[in-house]
Design brief:
The protein contains 15 helices and no strands. The protein is globular, with a radius of gyration of 21 Å. The two termini are 41 Å apart. α1 runs antiparallel to α10, α3 packs antiparallel against α14 (344-372) and α14 (344-372) packs across α15. The chain is mainly alpha-helical. 83% of the residues lie in helices and 0% in strands.
């Protein structure tokens, strides 16, 4: 392995330690996602109530990510990360205890999911900015790629382990495993060798949004990006809100089958990663996004009409392909904006706020739709909406290419 290889960042001790801790934490998160939705489907069969689990997890990002990014830019990344990771550790531990004692309720599960969402909202902007600070500038692209490869591996392994733990030991053990998974990152940030530099008082006044930055952030071009992200995630959220109802309540899947659903989503994401160099070319971002929207819509449609476990797995696989591409390209498009400002974590916070606003509002909306009608009608409708957006994006990208 030479220094120019894709895996070269792992030769750097501090990055390797960070990567291992982050990998274990992501693995635990996927295990908990399976366990939380499994427990909720035992507490309630209402699509609306079940969809609130996704809603409470996503809502805090809408309101807290921009502020978290701003304070991270002021030099408080390590403090924010320690507090947020400790919050999630505590919430997962309480969930494990309540499930073990059989005292869990719909309200307590939603409340603790909200706390987990708050922790995620606070940690994500500074976490993403730390990622590239652990390696030299020439290795930053490789560091980001290796990190996301790890995430995609956990997308497959985490839900599979979650299903095995559910079937073999029970949901309390799954929550306990997730609680333990945060300890590595807590220890890493506690002993983080990269010391934060205190910002002098006379410079703190300069670290703020200037009028030009506001004008740039909300320019017509960028507003189109924010609106597109919101609308797409609004339709895409139907999967995360309704797959528990489709799989557990309507198809009656066992714990292993249910856990493997997200595993097939992860397999689709891994498939996208293999062909990422061909799919995610900067000059064809518009066309790639259009394709991702359509493939994700195909996945939604299959999940919505699936008569059995096998068909639902196929839908999750297609959705995984589209999800990774659309989420990655949206993130990359937003990161390009940060080059215009010194408030990089804040700008990432804006992207996360818009992204999860669509996810949060979409989750509760599709849950309400399914309650009034059916989950099949809700998912087919969301697939149709995303297909229309894909067609518009494709035609618009073709017009732009022709003009160039």
């Amino acid at each position: 392995m030479n220094d120019s290889s894709m895996w070269s960042p792992l030769k750097i001790t501090v990055y390797r330690n960070f990567w291992i801790c982050a990998f274990l934490s992501n693995l635990g998160t996927w295990v908990q996602d399976v366990a939380a939705s499994w427990v909720m489907t035992h507490l309630s069969t209402s699509p609306l109530i079940i969809s609130l689990l996704s809603f409470t997890s996503n809502l805090p990002v809408v309101f807290l990510s921009i502020a978290a990014g701003y304070f991270a830019d002021l030099g408080h990344r390590r403090r924010i990360l320690l507090i947020s990771e400790s919050m999630m550790f505590t919430a997962a531990a309480i969930l494990a205890f309540l499930v073990w004692k059989e005292q869990i309720t719909e309200g307590s599960l939603l409340a603790l999911s909200l706390v987990m969402g708050i922790g995620f909202a606070l940690s994500n902007p500074p976490f993403q900015s730390v990622l590239t600070d652990l390696v030299p500038n020439e290795r930053q692209a490789q560091a980001v790629l290796v990190y996301y490869i790890g995430i995609n591996i956990t997308r497959v392994l985490g839900p599979t382990f979650g299903g095995i733990i559910l079937g073999g030991v029970g949901p309390a053990a799954a929550f306990f495993v997730n609680s333990l998974s945060f300890l590595g990152l807590i220890l890493f940030f506690w002993k983080w060798p990269v010391k934060e530099v205190a910002v002098p008082k006379d410079e703190k006044k300069e670290i703020k949004f200037s009028q030009k930055e506001f004008e740039f952030l909300f320019s017509f071009h960028n507003m189109k990006l924010w609106v597109e992200i919101f609308i797409v995630t609004f339709f895409a959220s139907s999967l995360w809100a309704l797959y528990p109802t489709r799989g557990r309540v309507e198809l009656g899947l066992n714990s292993w089958q249910y856990g493997s659903l997200l595993g097939f989503l992860g397999l689709g994401a891994c498939f996208s990663t293999i062909y990422s160099k061909k799919i995610m070319l900067p000059e064809r971002t518009g066309l790639s996004l259009a394709g991702a929207y359509f493939v994700y819509a195909v996945g939604l449609f299959f999940i919505g009409i699936a008569p059995s476990y096998i068909y639902m797995c196929q839908g999750m696989f297609f959705a995984g392909i589209g999800w990774l591409i659309l989420a990655t390209l949206m993130n990359m498009s937003s990161r390009q904006l940060t080059g215009k400002s010194h408030l990089k974590a804040t700008m990432l916070g804006v992207f996360l706020a818009v992204f999860y606003a669509g996810m949060a509002l979409g989750s509760v909306s599709w849950g309400a739709f399914a309650r009034m009608g059916s989950t099949t009608a809700a998912m087919v409708t969301s697939a149709a909406g995303l297909t229309v957006i894909a067609l518009y994006k494709f035609l618009n990208s073709k017009v732009v290419s022709a003009q160039i």
